[in-house]
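Re: beginner question about structure tokens

> Can someone show what the tokenized structure looks like for a real chain? I only ever see the sequence side.

Sure, here's an example I had lying around. Input first:
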Amino acid sequence: NVAYRMNTEEYYELTPYAKDLEENWGPAPGNLNSDGQNLVVYGKEFGNVFIGVQPTFGYEGDPMRLLFAKSASPHHGFAAYYTYLEKIFNADAVLHFGTHGSLEFMPGKQVGMSGTCYPDRLINSLPSAYLYAANNPSEATIAKRRSYSATVSYLTPPAENAGLYKGLKELKELISSFQGLRENEGRGPAIVNSIVSTAWTCNLDKDIKDLPNLEGYDAANDTPERRDDIVGKVYSQIMQIESRLLPCGLHTVGVPPSAEEAIATLVNIAQLDRPDDNIEGLPRVIASSVGRDINDVYRGNNNGVLADVELNDKITEAARAAVRALVNQSTDSNGRVKEVKSAFDEVGNFFGGLMGQKKPWTQAIVNAGFPDVEEARLAPLIGYLEFCLKQVVANNELGGIMELLNGEFLMPAPGGDPIRNPDVLPTGRNMHALDPSAIPTQAAVEVSEGVVRKLLEKLKDDNDGAFPESIAFTLWGTDNIKTYGESLAQVLALVGVRPVADSLGRVNKVELIPLEQLGRPRIDVVVSCSGVFRDLFINQMNLMDRGIKMAAEADEPLEMNFVRKHAMETAAEMNISLRDASARVFSNSAGSYSANVGLAIENGGWEDESQLQDQFLTRKGFAFNADKPGMMEQQADLFKSALKTVDVTFQNLDSSEISITDVSHYYDSDPTKVVQGLRDDKKKPMSLMADTTTANAQVRSLSETVRLDARTKLLNPKFYEGMLSTGYEGVREIQKRLRNTMGWSATAGEVDNFVFEDANSVFIEDPEMQQRLLDTNPNAFRDMVTTFLEANGRGYWDTSEENIERLQELYAEVEDRIEGI
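And the corresponding structure tokens:
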């Protein structure tokens, strides 16, 4: 698929900045996108349309380039690609198709590109339209600012419940049997024994600390209360897996969701309370009909209280039935929603009222076991869901692309999570983010205080009642846009600092919360901001830095102010001022992005873990200083000094659409093993994740989160069969999640052996599955085999010689297939 071969003479003549690239890449043509004599442009022409593949950065497999603190210039092949589009193919416009390319992340200024910035040089005079995922407004903003693109949003795949399979499904059936035979002293204990045995088979012992040991346990000798406790905890884990939201397959541009897919999206929208709109979430209304507060139900469910786990499951099913009843009113014979019928049709309401009939959604809740639910209390939510349904099934993506390519005005719209903010819908509009000076909002501050409370409770429980002294945080641009600054507010809350808004709602000040009001010590933080966060929220970095320095300079007892304690130690150790020693907000240098750890792991371009750790420290060790705003100074020693006191590493998961094995970003910025290497005692810090993807926010360990992600995606037939149904790209998506799972082994060591073992059983041991993967995408299947072999070779997966021999033979077979032998 070579569309054009550009000789070096033509390249230098048409690319005015080509000589500047030689500092990093030597003279053209080089060895990237080159046949040794010419620069090669990959793609294919279809009349007036050229479809091409944007070249990679070029340094993915080069350990030395990955280590550089500042990113290298584009290589000659990359420059030749854009030269070809503009000056040889003579394109009138470019449509960048899909999310997160390389152009907008090339070196240059953060904003206000000049003629020497590479995004400006590359795109030059070409009008750029960019089809971008609606849930990623932060990187879309970078594409606008740095590559002059107008964006067209597209819908992310609809999310459904992950469901259960194999032993997990068997466990739920056993629990259902126990509920019916709980009082039977003969059958009840026997079922509990089967539940315990199956839970061990499914490796749930790693998630349930006090699961009885298989040897010597007999439920008949246990108390009824203890049996309920065991079953409740297993049931709670099963429900977490079953109800986890799972993006199904891939989105096809211009094809709106089916009725079933719309139901899945609306169920998730209906979960959340929206106090600003005076809308109560469906679970809250249903729980209140039986005299319960939904937050108490969630708390009991999370603690494995059997009655609350059962009630939570029942409420979830009732909510789904109600939403289905609403959508069914507007569903045609093809299973699609063409026109949304009003939920409050006046004529229907009149006759229904005369007959004493309940609305279909109310009746569905009654049929699910909640006869006292108040129909009037449901009305505001149902009206809102009807509006959301219209937005979900609207179809303007292809229309939006054509409006841009015709040079017409495209309506703007916010980007973000369509579950939290349905105003993101319909897609097919020009995406924008939010006013950065308005975050964190008051609502975000309140939510963050709840998460911080749960986080500190979990840490105290696991540490004999002692508070952690220092927590390493990772802040992302997209997450803070979606949540209006929740994770930013968490940082401030830990330090004991309150954001203060002015009369216009702009958050530009912070104040110290007095210790007597705080009621606990000030926790030290080390904040690693993504490059995108740095670009979008430089004022919020200023807020954090000022707040942390305020805490460090407060004259308070050191046992109640760990920020001051550690800053004083660093000041003495490095012979610097207390204010300089309290730098805690770090990121990349201006114009650079990521730690390049993900690139190294994705391409196998790393020798050992120490290389990954050096990359993280070198590339992320630029400190923000409120006393010198606008500058990012390299402070690697200060970064190391702050990290070596860290007890806990922490990240947030805010959206069901992107989880920790879907992308490499999360492990790319994870400092767990970095901290372990820096600590004097070499002890690995605890790694935690806050999951706010549902109304029932939870704090889990990283290993728990990796297991949950593996069970709901990589190992789940619903996920991998959905991906396989999309063909070539689907196999690559499966491989990507396997590779990202190994990434967590490399940066945190928090992946259980059974995850690789079970993945091997699913994708490699089954000859039929092997063949499907090989036939659909041999390149991705080869990468999958390579990942298994690499995981074993690096000590992350312990398996049998038989498995390794099979993988080695498979690798040779796939290589022959690809080479056409």
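Each token stands for a local structural state, so reading them left to right follows the chain. The chain has a mean pLDDT of 91.
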